[in-house]
Amino acid sequence: xxxxxxxxxxxxxxxxxxxxxxxxxxxxxxxxxxxxxxxxxxxxxxxxxxxxxxxxxxxxxxxxxxxxxxxxxxxxxxxxxxxxxxxxxxxxxxxxxxxxxxxxxxxxxxxxxxxxxxxxxxxxxxxxxxxxxxxxxxxxxxxxxxxxxxxxxxxxxxxxxxxxxxxxxxxxxxxxxxxxxxxxxxxxxxxxxxxxxxxxxxxxxxxxxxxxxxxxxxxxxxxxxxxxxxxxxxxxxxxxxxxxxxxxxxxxxxxxxxxxxxxxxxxxxxxxxxxxxxxxxxxxxxxxxxxxxx
Length: 294
Hints:
Layout: H1 7-19, H2 22-29, H3 33-47, E1 52-55, E2 58-61, H4 63-91, E3 96-101, H5 103-120, E4 125-130, H6 133-141, E5 147-152, E6 159-167, E7 169-173, E8 184-185, H7 187-190, E9 195-198, H8 203-214, E10 223-225, H9 228-236, E11 241-245, H10 250-255, E12 259-260, E13 262-263, E14 270-277, H11 284-293
Parallel strand pairs: 3-4, 3-5, 8-13, 9-10, 9-11
Antiparallel strand pairs: 1-2, 5-14, 6-14, 7-11, 7-12
């Protein structure tokens, strides 16, 4: 059956046809001329046609041989292009990197790394998929992204998370609540004020809900939003006290448009990490990004 023909025979045929010489084909392939002759004879017997006829200068294709060569040449070109593509991917001259995460983590945490990565590997196309932590986990499992940027902990046997940096979340307010600036509040006192929180599916929201439950309280926000920018702006406008990541509002704290609410308990830090599928090979582009971040 032709489907069982050794592809090496086609390679020998290709170079014999391209060079018009069995000896030149042997040189290109680093084999002996008798090996080339034997390979062509095998191919002709398998296909049941004559592919070459000998001339004083070497060999020429028969009509059947010319037809076969037109197809084999296309295959050779595609294989060569594929090898070049693999080399380019390995050297990071081309390819793509798909990262999932929240808008806030991209803007306030990942942006410097993305900028450095793009400068170092300009041939790699960056695709950023925005979503909550559960959505980012789903993106990863569905193969829509290579990496996820998430708040830890992530408890899932299919997922591995490489730790990044520690972040500190806090409650902040604007000028409307200036009387609270130099006071230390209990959780009960804090809950007397309108609270602004991130959406229910966010890791930060889950963490603060669990913390309040640990102390026997339920935190019920007056306003729920879907972005850090809104948390910041609503607190600045005096619509309530927002729960945000301190590292994301350094500018506002420095200029005084926001101030941190002091509590009588220690707020635990959170950690951001890069999430990958366990036991799944990473692309070179993804591996280099992890090296850059860590």
